[in-house]
Amino acid sequence: REWRATQSLPHLDAQQMREKRKDSVVFDRTSEYACYDVNQALPVYVVSYRLVSSATVTDTYDRAALESTYSRMTDAQSVDWELVLRHVGPDGRPRQRHMALRKMGDLCRDDQRSMCARLPDELIHALRAQCLTLEVAEADAPVTWLALRLCWNAAYRNQAMQHRLAKQVGAATFLALLAHWNNDVVDRACGVILNLTQGSSSARADFWAAEAPTALAQLVCQSARRLLGDGPSEGEGVEPVPHALGAIANLAFAEDTRAKFLRSKQLRTFLGTVAEPLMDSWSEEVREEATRLFSCLIAEGQADKEWIEQGGAEVFQKSVSLED
Asked: Please, where are the H alpha helices in 199-252?
C-alpha cells in the first residue's frame, strides 16, 4: 500500500499513514522507499567496516578537529577567513563546506553587523559558484540550503547587505533555485528573496529586471489549490507559498508597481484568480501575505515614515528571521 510522493513531506508521520491506510512511501524520482511498518523491513545488504588507524585519516576528514576549529570562531573578529575561503571554495570537501557555511550562518545571525562589515567579496563569489547553483543543489542540497541560510541571516533588515548580495550573487541566481525539486531549497530561496527586497530599492529593481514577480507568481500558482478549502491534507505544509507571496508583496511596494502589474496579463490574472482567493485560505500565514500583497499595491510605495518606523514596516517592508 504505497504512497507515491513527488516531493518531500516533512509533516508526514506514522499516524497520518495509518489514517490514509498506507504503510510505505516511495519517492518516484529516486525509487527510495520509507517503510512505516517495521514488519516490512527486509534486510538485503550487510555492510561491513574495517578499522583503520586514525593516523591514516587526514585532517580534512577529521570531524572532531574540524568541529574544534570552528568552535573557536565565536564572533566576526575571531573568524579565520583564509580557512573559511579554502573550505567554501572549489577545493573544499563536502564536510568542510557544510561546517564553514553553518558557522558563518550562525555568526551572521548572532553578530550580524560585524560579520557583514567583514564578509570578503571572495566568499560571496564562492557562494555563487560553489553553493547556489541548480547543479550543486542536485548533488548536495544541504550545501545550498546552508548557503541560503547565510544569505538570509546576512540580509535580515540590513539594506547594505541586501544591495550587495543582489549585485554580487545576482537576482537570477536566487530565482534559478525556484526550479529545484527540493521544496526545502525552494522555500529557503523564497525567504532570501523576501529579505533581499525588504529595504533596498536597488535590490528590488534587480529582481524586477530578472522578472522575479512572474517567477514567484508561477510558484504560488502551483500550490494555490491545496491552500484553499477545508484544510491541509496528505501531510503537506504551506511552504513555499508564504515566503513567495511575501517576496511579491515587498516587490509590489514601489511607485510604479501597480502599473507594472496591470501591464502584465500574467500578473493581472494571478492577482484576480490566485492571490485574491488566497486571502480566504485556511492558512493564516497565507491569508496575511496575500492581504499584504494587495496593501502594498494600493499604497504604491507611499507610506508615512513615522508609521513605518513604529511597526508599519511589517506591512510594506517585511523581513523574516530564521529560528535555526
From this structure: 201-209, 212-223, 241-252
Provide the 10 A C-beta neighbour count for residue 22.
17
Q: What is the pLDDT of residues 93-125, one digit of tens each?
A: 999 999 999 999 999 999 999 999 999 999 999
User: What's the CA gap between 169 and 29, in Å, rounded?
Assistant: 30
Buried b vs exposed e over 246-256: b needs ≥16 C-beta within 10 Å?
bbbbbbbbbee
CA dihedral 212, 213, 214, 216 (to 10 degrees): 80
Cα-Cα-Cα-Cα torsion 314, 167, 116, 251, nearest 10 degrees, comes to 0
CA distance 173 to 113: 24
* Most distant pair of Cα atoms in the chain: their distance: 68
In 141-298, the DSSP E strands lie at none
Cell of 45: 545488504
Q: Where are the beta strands (DSSP E) in the chain?
A: 2-5, 24-27, 32-35
Burial class (CB in 10 A: 0-12, 13-18, 19+), 170: middle
Mean model confidence pLDDT for the chain: 86
pLDDT at 60: 44
